[in-house]
Amino acid sequence: MNNQHYISSHCTISSNAVRYNGTLLFEAEYTDIAGFLLSAYQLIGAKYPKFYKMDNLAKLGWLVAEVLLKDFDAAKYQPTDIGVVLSNASSSLDTDKRYYESVQDMASPALFVYTLPNIVIGEICIRHHFKGENAFFIFEQFNADFIAGYVSNLLDTQQLQVCICGWVELLGDKYKAVLFLVEKEKKEGSMPFTTENINKVYSTPNG
């Protein structure tokens, strides 16, 4: 079918900064990812106690989705119309390592919960009540071609009307998250959902 779809908004979290549609919303100096994520959470004013129980990958994905969707009217769609497709390079390795270390003493169930990368999708869907198609893929590096093709197919075949998609990578204190809100309807300020535009947003230093 190859219909044209559109990026309604995009959000980037990297280098201790949060950017929405290229505009800097928050920036702070932190030597550790946990401190930065907590500050970002407090700044956006979300009230979601479960956030404190999440691992760092889930916190990162949850936060970037929270900002991405701040102007999104989900009420226009059925929960099953909205899906999430994410990818990264390290899977859940950051938490896997922490869990393995905990096993040497006493295994931590709180860490074990997050030893699958798709848990971050679950946290986003629970928060926003999304019930559509979801998937998590592992690549050595960001693969805009795959994201564009896979998501476009979901939209073209009517499996979804809206898709949150992109990259959520975290290992130790190295991290980068770039998410796109993709819809069928062209809106003011939106851009075509193409490999070129996906790569442009992902590669732009200021997000």
What would you say about this model in short?
The chain has 207 residues and is of the alpha+beta class. It has one domain: Thiolase/Chalcone synthase (Peroxisomal Thiolase, Chain A, domain 1, 3-Layer(aba) Sandwich), CATH 3.40.47.10. It contains 7 helices and 8 strands.
Give descriptors for this structure.
eight-stranded mixed β-sheet, 25% strand, globular, Peroxisomal Thiolase, Chain A, domain 1, alpha+beta, 7 helices, 8 strands, 207 residues, single chain
CATH class: Alpha Beta
Indicate the structural class: alpha+beta
Rg over C-alpha atoms, rounded to the nearest angstrom: 16 Å
Query: What's the count of strands?
Result: 8
Number of helices: 7
Structural description of this entry:
There is one protein chain. The relative contact order is 0.24. The chain is built from seven helices and eight strands; from the N terminus they run βββααβαααβαβββα. The chain has a single domain, classed as Thiolase/Chalcone synthase (Peroxisomal Thiolase, Chain A, domain 1). α1 packs parallel to α2 (56-68), α2 packs parallel to α5 and α6 (144-156) crosses α7 (195-203). The protein has 207 residues and is an alpha+beta fold.
